[in-house]
């Protein structure tokens, strides 16, 4: 394996980048395939919950786990995680703006602040799951975040 990828660090960065690209594509696909904004946002939360609690998967998100492990000291990892969070934020922002325009979502709150709030909640669910919080409690976090969006 190291003949192909070089060292452990290079393999880690390539894996993290591939995961980031796959995750962003999946979120875009959910958003694009949703019949409305709320369905898209719920789908993204469901994806996160399933990723944290499926028995065949490690708990949490590879990106979130990596930034928690390495922090801001590892600039390359931080850059990949920031790119992912920005892309995910933009996907959520477009859904929120769409929902606000058609009256489905609350217009009294700023769309960009709501997008940041949702990204934070999604990351928080991953961290909570990794720390041992159960699915039911994490689902309640998701439900409360979605309830704040309601018109």
Would you kindly provide a written description of the structure presented here, covering whatever features stand out?
The protein starts with a helix and ends with a helix. The protein has 151 residues and is mostly helical. It has a single domain, classed as Tetracycline Repressor, domain 2 (Orthogonal Bundle). The mean pLDDT is 90. The chain is built from 7 helices and no strands.
CATH class group: Mainly Alpha
State the helical fraction: over 70%
User: What's the number of extended β-strand segments?
Assistant: 0
Question: Which structural class do you get from the secondary structure elements?
Answer: mainly alpha
Largest sheet: none
* Average of pLDDT: 90
Q: Note poorly predicted spans.
A: none
CATH superfamily: Tetracycline Repressor, domain 2
CATH architecture call:
Orthogonal Bundle
Computed CA radius of gyration, to the nearest angstrom: 16 Å
- What CATH calls the topology is Tetracycline Repressor, domain 2
Distance between the termini: 52 Å
How much of the sequence is in beta strands? under 5%
Order of helices and strands: HHHHHHH
Shape: globular
The count of helical stretches stands at 7
| Total number of domains | 1
Question: What labels describe this entry?
Answer:
7 helices, Tetracycline Repressor, domain 2, 78% helix, mainly alpha, 151 residues
The gist of it:
By secondary structure, this protein is mostly helical.
Secondary structure layout plus pairing:
Blueprint: H1 2-5, H2 8-33, H3 37-53, H4 62-70, H5 75-101, H6 111-130, H7 135-149
